[in-house]
């Protein structure tokens, strides 16, 4: 895989007939066996983008074939699976990357720049909202409607990764997930309170039955900063006027794949470190456990 216009050579699907036209249009070899595709000597790396509950299993197949993998988030739904992937990748000497397009948004890059410069002072708290009208189309009885595949807080993971990147490790979680409006068994509304190891706090909100709303805000002693959607950045310093910026749109998914190619080549590390991806799986599992128990729990 190199920085070229067409980095993909093969696709693995469950329905060959349904995918034939797309594969032909993009000159992709088509198959149904991920292990066979991973063993192909022409393949330098694999993007695992199937259903979330299969990410870990598919990624392990790729790693065992000796190939780097970009597992579209979540890396895994529990800590044991995530740790197994991390250990297998280390043993095979291949890159284990978690794909997360928001990591490449221009406003997130601007937020990183401000944080690195210390513009916010001591970080105290973050809030992340991810709201979409997605669960209304999920029918009861389908695999998508299985709470084991989409546990309470599953949508909250969209802002969880920025929370971990900004505040570090999370040591406790209290999640309340409710089925309020969707015709299935999923927690379509979830609120999560997090305590971080550095004594900061965080809130996550996930709604699967509202119009789109995406926000991540960082509060510090010298100011607060907020990212909205993919391109809006707001900074309010403790002293001075508010800055509001509308940044140029980028192809985040392409940049993500190119960053994976750089990680494979060893020219640049992938922006989301593997240890953060593994820790995120621990938090996802803890959120589900907290909701089931009706109380806060520790994050291992």
The unreliable regions are none
Strand line-up in the sheet with most strands: 13-12-11-10-6-9-8-7-14
CATH topology label of the largest domain: Dihydrodipicolinate Reductase, domain 2
Q: Which word captures the global form?
A: globular
Number of strands: 14
Q: Quickly count the helices.
A: 8
How many structural domains does the protein architecture include?
Answer: 2
The oligomerization state is single chain
What do the pLDDT scores average to?
94
- Say which CATH homologous superfamily of the largest domain is assigned: Dihydrodipicolinate Reductase, domain 2
Give a structural overview.
With 300 residues, this protein is an alpha/beta fold. 32% of the residues lie in helices and 27% in strands.
Record the SSE blueprint:
Elements: E1 10-12, H1 16-25, E2 29-31, H2 34-39, E3 46-48, H3 55-64, E4 69-72, H4 79-92, E5 96-99, H5 106-116, E6 123-133, H6 157-167, E7 170-178, E8 189-196, E9 201-207, E10 209-220, E11 223-228, E12 232-237, E13 243-246, H7 252-265, H8 274-293, E14 297-298
Parallel strand pairs: 1-2, 3-4, 4-5, 6-9
Antiparallel strand pairs: 6-10, 7-8, 7-14, 8-9, 10-11, 11-12, 12-13
